[in-house]
Amino acid sequence: MAKIRVTQVKSKIRRPQNQKRTLEALGLRKIDQVVEHEATPTILGMVNTVKHLISVEEVK
Question: Model pTM?
Answer without folding.
Answer: 0.94
